[in-house]
Design brief:
By secondary structure, the chain is mainly α. It has one domain. The chain is built from two helices and no strands. The N and C termini lie far apart (about 80 Å).
């Protein structure tokens, strides 16, 4: 980034460089925060379950009952 700044005894060249470094650091930090937190939010939303825990347990119990019924049926044949 190029920037023209005035130089005086109260505002030396090194102060201008320091200000530019701080501005760039803040821009980079904000960009990283947006990327990191945005991506983290996308991942968490993708992992979040839409079904309640009770519904999941009910479906698991139904699967077990069906599997047991099929095994009994196959054992009788």
């Amino acid at each position: 980034v190029e920037q023209d700044s005035s130089i005086s005894e109260t505002n030396p060249h090194i102060a201008n460089i320091g200000r530019m470094v701080e501005e760039m650091e803040n821009k980079i930090r904000n960009t990283l925060n947006e990327i990191y937190f945005g991506k983290t939010k996308d991942i968490v939303n993708g992992l979040r379950s839409v079904q309640s825990l009770a519904d999941q347990r009910q479906q698991a119990a139904l699967r077990q009952d069906l599997a047991a019924a099929l095994q009994r049926r196959n054992a009788n044949n």
